[in-house]
Amino acid sequence: MGESISRRMAWLLVAVTGAGAVGGIALNRGESINALWFIAAAACVYALAYRFYGAWIAARVLVLDETRATPAERLDNGRDFVPTNKWVVFGHHFAAIAGPGPLIGPTLAAQFGYLPGTLWILIGAVLGGCVQDMTIMFFSTRRDGRSLGQMARDELGPLGGAAALTGTLMIMVILIAVLGLVVVNAMKHSPWATATVAATIPIAVLVGVYMRDLRPGRVLEGSLIGLALLLFAVAGGGWIDHSETLRPLFDHEGLTLAWFVIGYGFLAAILPVWLLLAPRDYLSTFMKLGTIFLLAIAIVLLRPEIRMPALTQFIDGSGPIFGGKLFPFVFITIACGAVSGFHSLISSGTTPKLLANERDIRMIGYGGMVLESFVAIMAMIAATVLDPGVFFAINSPAGVVGKEAADAVAKISSWGFPVTVEQMQMLAREMGEKTLFARTGGAPSLAVGMASIFGSAFGDGLLALWYHFAIMFEAVFILTTLDAGTRVGRFMLQDFLGNFSPRLGQTSWYPSVLLTSAIIVAAWGYFLYIGVIDPNGGVNILWPLFGISNQMLAAIALSVATGILVKSGKLRYAWVAGVPLAWLAAVTTTAAYEKIMSADVRIGFFAAANDLAAKLAAGKLPPEKAAVAPQLIFNQQLDAWLTLFFVAVLWVVIFDMLRVCARHLQGKTVVPLSEAPHEPSRLVEDWVRD
Amino acid sequence: MDEFIRAGRMNSALRGLWRFIRRLSGDDAYERYLAHHAQAHPDEAALGRGEFFKREQERKWNGVRRCC
Predict the structure, then answer these.
(1) Where on the phi/psi map is residue A145: left (φ > 0), alpha (ψ -120 to 50), or beta?
(2) Beta strands in A213-319 (DSSP E)
(3) What is the dihedral of CA A484, A451, A376, A485, to 10 degrees?
(4) How confident is the model at residue B18 (pLDDT cuts 50, 70, 90)?
(5) Confidence class of residue A690 from pLDDT cuts 50, 70 and 90?
(6) List of residues 6+ apart from A585 with CB closer than 8 A
(7) Which of A343, A488, A690 sits opposite B23 (nearest CB)?
(8) What confidence category does residue A553 fall into, taking pLDDT thresholds of 50, 70 and 90?
(9) In the beta sheet, which residues pair with residue A305?
(10) CA geometry: angle at A583 spanning A581 and A586, to 5°?
């Protein structure tokens, strides 16, 4: 009894602290606020949500059954189905879901100020993202670890299944294009960054050969050697940058770099995985976990002050980084850090095949997303500790603030965020870069933020090294996502083409591998190319498109979850998935509507296309802009149709789900639940495989 | 005496951590494969280390493994 009271008091204390920290962040005006408040608010919100909401969903809504054998136990084949210790599964699951998205989204959304993004990262994760990941993981576990696409087909019907599959393929293409653009923008005219990122390729190959031939299967040894070489490459990039002869070899225009990335993507897709993709992934996973851990320690040690105001005037839609009002664009921009549809692809199909017991689903599904959301909070901190003037100077495209440094600082200072040319030159020199103006995409500004945090916490003299370390860290796992995504796209395309020609469907038939890889690379390569030649930076077009597609996929996953809840006779709990679904549907549809219909040329695709066409016809464009204008016009129109397609797919799935639910509630026949029959678990209570 | 026990505990904790790291990274995959293979298919020859590594990587990267 005494213990239960003290426990309650402890949770009350967490609640009060959390409310105080969130309130402090939300109501603070004018004075600067310490980053520790963000950490405290996040920790309390996560702890409460995990302890109460997550546990309630586990016990009441899903009714996790620890006596029931999981697919890993029933179908154990020692390969993909293996009952595994929950901490190991947590590690694998987190490494799979944590990508560059939660680092980039919050950085871009910081143009609205620190508050809107931070609140959505916290609220969206605990009520939306964590719920999506956990429910999908549970439903897939009950269905032999089937994928989201299969579950959509089994539970809703062929329409839902087809929508989920097409949605996944499209989101993959847009995602890879925007990530490619982020890397290109980070390497543009930066010999140091380019040399370091280029060095990661031979390093990965070397590690691959080591793990395959020299010391087969010695993953830890190989990875440690690779990590040492990566750190060496960061320093080596600095020497190249200082060498008059080597420097020009790595100093390139964006377009040249884009072609390199496209060529690299094609090679990575057709080479055997053990040679490039797998070793790169080992390196990027270690690098990712290590850097995130280091960043958390540095923030706590340093306790930096947040310089960005809580809200900026750009909530009215006039922001330089991307156009559009706070609602709906902050939600579309944050995307992965709060709710990521992509996670449903890992939570189904992959992770459920490792679960030793259903009770682990709360920790891995809900807890995994909590940690991902915390990464997004750290990215928000890294973006907002910068001087707002510096932040906007790095992230605003030249097409908005002007090509000349003097014009850019004048424009940004006129918004009330003072910054000077000298300040930017000084910063660029410290970071070992020629310029930091208009380095859009979020990676350079995140790297400056991380470098200043690391530099202050662990030694100031190494700013340039820290900056390029951060760039390398981002590039390494962006390129992993690019490799892996191209490969998945290729498999999906081969699967689809196999319906028409069985030969093309064979994943080992080399002509088919070449053809389908080329198609996928061409698809994302096109968007990357357009993004690079766009004088407004391309990120302002591609990131919202990616956000819309990602939130659409999340809505599909939540539709599947809502449908299954209703069909299982849990109508009164269906709001758990239904409320985030309704919110995402509203956000995504509003964003899509504005991107298609808005008359503002910085928001509406058609408006931008028409405006550019009119200027071109009137001969008002300078020659270099006129040369690319027809391609930009076509692209804006294509993007509009693509957005329309996304939102159509979204509503098809929602209506399909509502139709199935309505029929079920009226007592009519619907496709039956595809849950695997109950089999008692024979694994002992506290059994661990290893 | 106490020190010995403490050192022993420390030792086994470190060993547990090492096992965990090897398991998490997949460093022990081949040993687990051999154990599974000996139990499930005792009459078939097991793959060599290099061949197993290559085949496992092909299998692993056959689906969605990494997110945004």
Answers:
(1) left
(2) 305-306
(3) -10
(4) very high
(5) very low
(6) A555, A650, A651, A654
(7) A690
(8) very high
(9) A34
(10) 110
The rounded distance, in Å, linking the Cα atoms of A627 and A612 is 12
What's the complex ipTM?
0.91
pLDDT digits (tens, 9 = 90+) for A624-669: 899 999 999 999 999 999 999 999 999 999 999 999 999 999 999 9
| Greater pLDDT, A477 or A65 | A65
Q: Whole-angstrom Cα distance, residue A638 to residue A531?
A: 13
SS3 content of chain B, % helix, strand, coil (to 5): 70, 0, 30
Dihedral sign from CA coordinates of A580, A583, A586, A591: negative
| CB pair distance less than 8 Å for B27 and A480 | no
Establish whether the linkage from the previous residue to A544 is cis, with ω within 30° of 0.
no
**Which single residue is written with the structure tokens 């996502």?**
A481
Beta strands in A210-335 (DSSP E): 305-306
Question: Hey, are the CB atoms on A100 and B60 less than 8 Å from each other?
Answer: no
Query: At A329, which amino acid appears?
Result: F
Structure-token match 């908005």, residue found: A400
Subunit contact A217:B23, Cβ cutoff 8 A: no
Q: Which two tokens stand for residue A16?
A: 């009060």
The number of residues in chain A equals 690
Q: Closest Cα of chain A to B11: distance in Å? A: 17
User: Taking residues A251-266, what's their average pLDDT?
Assistant: 97
The length of chain B is 68
CA distance A392 to A313: 13
Strand partners, A84: A355
